[in-house]
Amino acid sequence: MATTSLPPLSSDLLEAHHSGIREIANEAYGMPGAIRLEAGQPDFRTPAHIAEAAKAAIDEGFTFYTPTAGIPPLREALAGKLERVNGIDVPPAQIVCGPGGVGVISATMATLVEPGDEVLTPDPGWPNTSIMVAWAHGREVRYPCPPELGFQPDLEALERLITPRTKVLLVNSPNNPTGAVYPEETLRRLAGLARDRNLWLISDECYDQIMLDGRGVAPSMANHLQDGRVISVFTFSKSYAMTGWRLGYAVAAPDLIDGIIKFLESTSSCVSAITQKAGVAALNGPQDCVAEMVSAYRRRRDLSVDLLREAGLLVAEPQGAFYVMADVSQTRMGAREFALRLLRERQVGVAPGTAFGSVAGQAVRISLASSDQDLREGIGRLAEFVQELGGR
Question: Are 274 and 62 within 8 A, CB to CB?
Answer without folding.
Answer: yes
